[in-house]
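How a chain folds remains the central question behind the approach discussed here. In the encoding step, the backbone of a single protein was reduced to a row of integers, each denoting a local shape. We regard such an encoding as a compact summary of how the chain folds. The sequence in question and its structure tokens are set out directly beneath this paragraph:

___
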Amino acid sequence: MSEVQVQAIIIGVFTLLGVTLGALGAYYQARQAAKADREKDERHRNWSLRDFTRDRRLAVRDARCRQAEDFISAMSQDFHQFRTHSAWIVALDPAGPVPPELHEFAWWQKRIDKAVFQYGPVVSAISTRKHDLQLPWGKMDQAWRNMSAHYTFAYGNVIANRTPVPNPEELSAAITEVYEAYNEAQREFIETIDKIKSSRMR
């Protein structure tokens, strides 16, 4: 075998080896690029799922906050009327005519437990360890029940039995005290729900 043939064979072997190594390198590089693309796509999918989940949780939380705020607003209007009627009955002359509004409110008062606290579960659902709505809610609940007791006592004396309220000054002061306690609890509730709405999702 001549020297030229040997050189041709060596060149051919190295050329073939180079082509093979190049093909292997290209295959490995393409495989790595495909793997990187898959990982990138997976990350994007995970990010999208997390964003969707977070947006969904925020939407649910905000809807519950609006529901609670709307109900607290309506409840507070009712409580103001409740306090007004309670004070009105205390000051009413038992021998005089009874305004029709007080009879209507007495009927409505019988439905108060079902009508007023129907959104209690919403309060527990949006409360957090850091921002607890259940504490001010409990104070509002208790204030309502205290006002209900004062109202029932005054109604039983003045309207049902047509007799004056014993110690009307004390009862009027107690009604005012309960009203102030309710307003303070309502302030705490509104401040807390504002913090919940502005906080990051836990």
